[in-house]
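Weekly structure sync, notes
Attendees: PL (lead), two postdocs, one rotation student
Agenda item 3: pending single-chain targets
PL asked that the sequence for the first pending target be pasted directly into the notes so everyone works from the same version. It is reproduced below exactly as submitted, 256 residues in total.
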Amino acid sequence: SPAPAPHPPMAAQDNTTAAFTAVEYTLSPVGAAGAPGGASDPKPALDALQQLESLVQQPNWKKDPRCTQLMWRAFDADRLDVMKWLHTKGTPAGSRNERGWNMAHEACHHGRPHILVLLRDDFDHGHLFEELALGDDSLHGGTHAASLAVMAGHTEVVQVLVESGIYIAKVRHGAHSRNLAHVAASHGRAEKKLWDLFGAHEVDLLGKDAQGKVPEDLAHETGHAPAFARGVSGLGWKGSPGTSPSKGGGYADDFE
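Predicted structure, written out during the meeting:
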């Protein structure tokens, strides 16, 4: 029988592992704080990446899970330069973390619009950005990245989605097929700019979910009726808050 393929020399394995560890350390809060130029000094991490590059074969930037892990470390550290560098080597940007979220989910949830701009402008190959922002997320109950931004009230993130050509009116959330107005109403979001975006971009404020409920119904059910009333107050609301169409109130003409 043929002899088994020889293993790589242990020293080479150790060097590669050490190089990965070095990059991770420079991206950590402790490592960044200890950089010669302070936490904002980009040089140590980039130097460590150059050292790593000399040890990692080109195809492995896409396949080695440690490279994907470095991409997430760079994301956590807000190091867009390192994210770009890794992406040019082939490291994928569409992976999911331990809770099943991709980078668009995390950016929307934590209010980091600059990450979305990076994904759109630097990483967008084959509509990756739209897939990340709107793609089906069966691992997290159908929660789209756009929904997470609305839940947390990150209007600036929703604005980036709109400016990027994401048709927010088509976003449907969860098993009940709710639109973003349902999401905002049920989470007590009263930000005027958010509701103005809904009104300007055809999010159906009178739309019914799979249970026949409109956004105002959910606002009442969750105790957020006052927030809902404030949110829609600038949208030509002429009826009195509290009139629920699914209960016979019928306010089809309450919006100008």
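Discussion points:
- The longest helix spans residues 10-27.
- The chain has 15 helices and no strands.
Action: rotation student to compare against the earlier draft before next sync.
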